[in-house]
Amino acid sequence: MRIIKNRAVIRDRWRLEDGDDNGAGAGDNGAGRDARVIMPLQRYMKMRHALCQTGRRVGVKLRAEDEVDRIAGDLGRIDLIALEFGAFHEGRGYSQAVQLRQLNFAGEIRALNAHRDNLPLMERCGIDAYQLAAGEDLDEALDAFDEITEYYALNS
Q: What is the pTM of this model?
C-alpha cells in the first residue's frame, strides 16, 4: 500500500492489525525485529512490557474516543501513532495530534481514513503521514497542501 508521508507518496512499511483481541496475530510472523505492526491501544496495553523487551518497532492505533494520556509515559518507546478518523466530520484526532506534539512525541503521527480537503489542517496539527480514505487519489491529494496559503492567527 502507498501512503503520503512528509508530502511525498511512499510505500508503507507498516502493517495495521485491527483486532483488539487477546493479542493473537501480533507476533512477528517470521519478520523478526524488522516487523512493523500498528496495533490497537487495547492490545498494546496488554503487550507493552513484552514489546519493550523485543526491541521491535511499535505502532499504536488510537480511536477517536481513546485518551492520549493512557500512552503518555510510553511515547519514547512508540515509533508511530495512527489516529482513526472514522468520518469526514470527526475532529477528535486533531486534538489527539496536538496533544501528542505537546507531549514532545517525535515519531510519526498518521491519519487513517484521511480526506484530501483535511490534509492542510491535519498537517498544522502535527500529523505527518496520511492513509487516505477509499476513493481518494494519492497524487491528486498532494496538491491540497499548497492550496491554502493564509491562515487566521490564533491569539494565545
A: 0.86
